[in-house]
Amino acid sequence: MPRRSLARRSGPGTGNEFLLRCLAMNETEMQGGAPPAAPEPAEAIEREAGLQRNLTPGQLAMIGLGSTIGTGLFLGSAISVKLAGPAVILSFVGGACIAVTMMWALAEMAAAHPAAGSFGLYAEMYLHPWAGFAIRLTYWLCMMVVVGSEVVAASIYCKFWFPATASWIWIGLFSLVILYVNCTSVGSLGIFEYWLSMVKVVTIVAFLILGAALLCGLGFPKVGFANYTAYGGFLPNGWSGVGLGIILGLFSFFGIEVVGSTAGEAADPKAAVPKALRRTLVVLVLFYVGGLALIVGIIPWTQIGLVESPFVRVFQIVGIPAASHIMNFVVLTAALSSAVANLYFAARLAFSMARGGYLPAVLGRLSRKNMPVVAVLASAGGMAAALILSKYYKDSLFVYMIGLSTFGALFAWLMTLLTHLVFRRFHKRQGRPYLQLGPPGPWPRSWGWEE
Questions:
Q1: Which of 14, 17, 332, 430 could form a disulfide linkage to 157, CB 3.0–4.6 angstroms apart?
Q2: Which pLDDT tens digit goes with each residue over 346-373?
Q3: Whole-angstrom Cα distance, residue 68 to residue 342?
Q4: Burial of 433 per CB tally in 10 Å (0-12, 13-18, 19+)
Q5: Could you tell me the pTM of the whole model?
């Protein structure tokens, strides 16, 4: 019996649809037949209907920034500097070049098919149903871990002010707040995330202004540009250090793909999503490349440690009182902002898989305000795990959870680029118009550009 007939007999959204879908795909491949037919674009988009479309382009961009700019920029940037020295500037430029390719690919597909399933749904449509299932399930599980790691980080920052308070109290409190924000309405979530992300944006802009003034001697004693070459040259660790820095730099751009999932709830997705992706990437490049360029120019790269944030060092040099308290507040809001945005994305992936029959149908249900509350609660498993494990791994839990989550983002990017190749080929052969963002180039098939 054909797979579609089985699905109809079971009825959309029944508990048996997931088992029937897996059985049909497995039997087809074991018999050496053609792979199961992917859903038509209109059919795939329609099955994820029902979500509110209230997010503005500004809120979309802030959700992307909230997911991407976490504690890594403020605390983890020192690791990249240790690997590459002043040439960390080149490392992050290289990471940005890879990120812009992924941004073009995702924006083109999101404009053509605005849906909450994002790159996972596109992989199902253009590659194979199993590909769409694998990428969404992998990324969903990794996002759960990321959300858990961010609430653990938030509890660590609170110890700066309240060292005697147990971590599990902060983890439980922040988890309740994050769940509430993700269950109310998408408009309220967008506003909450907008202002949380604004704290990070204002802090980084202030850092860029003060750092440039220090470097050039505008109102402060001039630091000059000697630190770029004074300690082993611009490439103290050679090009191998730059290469390692590119890997870490690429990780710093992970999270921008969250904007693709907001297409299912954007007011005008065909225009808003590409605009939000472009805006997010431009801001990220400015913040990362500009921020690190100022850091290695003001502070000798050999003096940048892994314990103290280089941002705190610069604010202290400027003479801002209570710089450590200010930065602790900033990284706390950064962790909470990232947790809110990533739980949003994780819930939409679970919702998409449930509507496609890959997870129990209850995860695809919407509340009276058209919010996937059940999917949000199921995606909060990472916070529940963090609450329990914080008693047993007090000092190492954050590192372990971050390590587990890195694979999912890399896998998602690779699959997105592969899907985009097929997306372009399909639209060209069918003569269907689509929004083209990537310019033509000499190796179009490798970069997902026009042939």
A1: 332
A2: 898 898 888 888 889 899 898 888 889 9
A3: 9
A4: exposed
A5: 0.76
